[in-house]
Amino acid sequence: MLSAIQRFVPNAVIIALGIGAAAMGAGYGVLGDDGRVGPGFLPTVAGALMAFFAAVNVLTSGRKQTPTLDSVVEEQVPGFHDGEASLDPAGDGGLDIHGRTQRQRDRMLWTVIGIVLATVALVPLLGFMLAFAAMLLVIAVVVERRKIMPSVMVSVVTLAATYAIFVLFLRVPLPQGILGI
Amino acid sequence: MLDNLMLGFSTALTFENLLWCFVGVLVGTVIGLMPGLGSTTGIAILIPLTLGMEPVTALIMLAGIYYGAQYGGTITSVLISTPGEAASVVTTLDGYQMARQGRAGSALAIAAIGSFIAAIISLALLMALAPPFAQFALNFGPVENLSIMILGLITVVSFAGGSMSKGLMMVTAGLLISTVGIASGFSQARFTFGNVNLLGGIPFVEVMIGLFAVGEVLHQIRVGAAAPIRARFKDMVISRKELTNSMPSIFRGSFIGFLLGCLPGAGSTLASFLSYGVERRFSRNKHNFGKGAIEGVASPESANNAAANANFVPTLALGIPGGGTTAVLLGAFTIYGLQPGPLLFEQQPTLVWGLLVSFFIGNVMLLVLNLPLAPVFAQMLRIPYAYLYPIIILTSLVGAYSVSNNMFSVWLVVIFGLVGFFMKELDLPIAPLVLGVVLGPLLEKSLVQTSALGQGNFMIMFQSQISVSILSLALLLAVGPWLIGRFKSTPSDAKELTHV
């Protein structure tokens, strides 16, 4: 369940974006010759409506709790979660099958996001294939703590398949780095 | 009608289309098997690979992924009680119990047979419904098209489940994204901030891959790893008695699935739950439900397959997607230069009938594949997610790059991946945003045409009976749930299942 602040901040950002977009849209010209719609019509209307619905969402979100998938299943089929079936493998805040806590999984998430951003940033330097080879290995070995040899094998097979499909079959000129790879 | 059918078979039965249909259903089955990978994600990732194909071939393959994933989701539901697709959730109830009793083979067989029969029934119903749609479409002009767009956008109410404001907020966000760049008919660059890469707009493929593939991966990392898989079953033979007992359930499920699938936004998941509920209420074997009743597998599996096929009725005939996956497919149509909607049946009969007939052929392939090979597919579940998700990220980013040969596309995917992740965390529905991005350019074109026709007066929309009828339906869809909510204190829960 999201807290009031967690609900409010994203909606406030969306309201600000909507108002900004509507203001910019108005600058492009809302109506043209003979009352026809101009290039700014849709951005202005869409921006204003987005801000409006975000405001409505702020005002109404506290009143009614949106049902989750699990709660719906429980209502449709009583006793479903008493059995061995579950839709949420780890549960909210629980341990997953590797014994990781929610905090550890959050740390993994931000690490993976950082690695992906670094990989894309390094493509001009290392080239596409080398940068993504490093990404596959680092995620498997460092983030997921998998053994090195299987991780290397998975990475090599994946990159070979990617090269075969995209470079050889589809003839996509993947960016090369300073090493020419 | 027979001419259309023959046209469809002659298109779908070419070697190339058969091959890609097979690839589609095979890949779809594997995608449906993998927890965290759904048909929407799979199609979003694979759209770049289809750009060099003929549109009909590409759509046959992408549609194959869609209904192939329904089969794959069934295998995981039965064997490990973990549905790969939301539409297979209800199959776990009796399917998994059957597997524990050593009847996994029967469960998978009846699911495959039920899905196959549902595909035949839904194809027949599609053929019956399509010609009246095509005839009706001849009366459509810019005003009616604009009304259809408005109806399409209002269907977000269905997509968004419990929260109408969230759905409308996201569809307007999608419309805003679609206005970036220079629109056709205007010379004004909008929201480009001096970046030349944005002059052509934000491409649909990058938005899809980011929101569905990368966003889903990040979400799965946060949710945690699923249980390890140990699938084994020996008996693949279904008894004649089980088959006979299941036939009424298959027919009921097929009709319920088709009817719900035709409604924009209703989707396969709701169909599977409702058909299970109906079966549990009316079956002679109702006391066995939840304990391994074969009817509890036959009915929802038939329903979700029929609904998946029927989803194409609003998608093809009106240009309104029936669910999240068909919203992505709708975008794929526009990438291939096609405009789904009333005139599609008239202008592209080869494509439409080839695609519809391919559903039948694809389901034959799935039946042949799934009856003997389900245990083989099940072995794929042993691939740890720790290896799988970096591969999904790589495939997503290289796929995006291949569309434009520009690193800007890769950055867009990363950005929209983060947007998709936060949307999931904040419980904001993604499908309405997709719908806004897809329909935005078409809506703007219709707005310009209609305003020109009415010389700036939009009241022209109320001078056409068709337009008034469509707008009335849109109003009903917008206000209906609110009115129902006023008279009913509990929310319509099952709709949340269509939340993408």
Order of helices and strands of chain B: HHHHHHHHHEEHHHHHHHHHHHH
Mean pLDDT of chain B: 81
Number of domains of chain B: 1
Please trace the helix and strand order of chain A, writing H or E for each element: HHHHHH
Spans where pLDDT lies below 50 across 5 or more residues of chain A: 65-74, 79-92
Q: What is the number of helical segments of chain B per DSSP (H or I, 4+ residues)?
A: 21
Task: Describe the protein.
The complex is a heterodimer of chains A (181) and B (500). Chain A has 181 residues and is mostly helical. Among the domains of chain A are: 4-60; 102-169, no CATH class. Helix content of chain A is 64%, strand content 0%. Chain A contains six helices and no strands. The longest helix of chain A is centred in the middle third of the chain and has 25 residues, at 102-126. Chain A starts with a helix and ends in a 12-residue tail after the last helix. Mean pLDDT of chain A is 81; it is low at 65-74 and 79-92. Chain B has one domain. In chain B, a hairpin with a 6-residue loop joins strand 1 and strand 2 (189-190). A two-stranded antiparallel sheet of chain B has the order 1-2. Chain B is mainly α. In chain B, helix 10 (204-223) packs antiparallel against helix 18. In chain B, 71% of the residues lie in helices and 1% in strands. Chain B is built from 21 helices and two strands. The model of chain B is unreliable at 490-500 (pLDDT under 50).
Give the arrangement of secondary structure elements.
The complex is a heterodimer of chains A (181) and B (500).
Chain A: H1 4-27, H2 41-60, H3 69-76, H4 102-126, H5 128-143, H6 148-169
Chain B: H1 2-12, H2 15-33, H3 39-46, H4 55-80, H5 91-100, H6 104-137, H7 142-154, H8 156-159, H9 164-178, E1 181-182, E2 189-190, H10 204-223, H11 240-262, H12 267-282, H13 295-310, H14 312-318, H15 324-335, H16 344-347, H17 349-379, H18 385-404, H19 407-425, H20 431-453, H21 465-487
Antiparallel strand pairs in B: 1-2
Helix pairs in contact in B: 1-17, 2-4, 2-17, 3-4, 3-10, 3-15, 4-5, 4-6, 4-13, 4-15, 4-17, 5-6, 5-13, 6-11, 6-13, 6-17, 7-20, 7-21, 9-20, 10-18, 10-19, 11-12, 11-13, 12-13, 15-20, 18-19
